[in-house]
Amino acid sequence: MLQIPSLAIFYNPHAKHAADFQSFKQNERAQLLDRAAIDLFFDAHNPDKDSRLFSLYSDKALVSRAGLPPIYFQVCGLGPLRDGALVFQREVRTKYETPTKLRIYPGLPHSFWSYLPQQEVAYGYRRRHEMAS
């Protein structure tokens, strides 16, 4: 299971990926995790943005996705990192035939289950997370 996967942060996406990575811009003012918080985190972290450790979609150091085990994705619809998970899920499922399960939580912000723990959707998220772990 990938929970809050930071697979790709697209400050300046490569042209071939730009159309697939809209959530970073679309959700830049999202509740709980907005662009300012992401910028603050990465400014403090100061990663090598060309490193494959920073982004699986680095043009300079490609990472193989072959042979991965089945992956369960739970993705927040209002999360700025949403599209990184969706693109990765589609890629490993179609190109590498990795079995995947995808659940999208439309209209919910990044890490909603932590901030809205009493909501029924948060209970469901945690149940599915426990079953997949």
UniProtKB/TrEMBL annotation:
<protein>
    <submittedName>
        <fullName>Alpha/beta hydrolase fold-3</fullName>
    </submittedName>
</protein>
<dbReference type="Pfam" id="PF07859">
    <property type="entry name" value="Abhydrolase_3"/>
</dbReference>
<feature type="domain" description="Alpha/beta hydrolase fold-3">
    <location>
        <begin position="7"/>
        <end position="113"/>
    </location>
</feature>
<keyword id="KW-0378">Hydrolase</keyword>
<dbReference type="InterPro" id="IPR029058">
    <property type="entry name" value="AB_hydrolase_fold"/>
</dbReference>
<dbReference type="InterPro" id="IPR013094">
    <property type="entry name" value="AB_hydrolase_3"/>
</dbReference>
<dbReference type="GO" id="GO:0016787">
    <property type="term" value="F:hydrolase activity"/>
</dbReference>
